[in-house]
Amino acid sequence: MMEGEEASEVGREGGAKVAKPQIFDGTAVRVVGFITACKLYIRMKMREEPVEGQVQWILSYVQGGTADV
Q1: How far apart are CA 63 and CA 48, in angstroms?
Q2: Which residues pair with 24 in a beta bridge?
């Protein structure tokens, strides 16, 4: 687990708790990890959210560095 991530085996609702992705700054070596973290979080916590809401949530974690270009 990386710095800033919060995860435990069981969340408050009794389901699995999953860490949110770290802020993505466009660094090429972090792309796969970022996408994997986003997919996992969406599958676990945002299944009922419309696709537009999921995309907006992902974009809220894309900032700084080459991601701002």
Answers
A1: 25
A2: 62
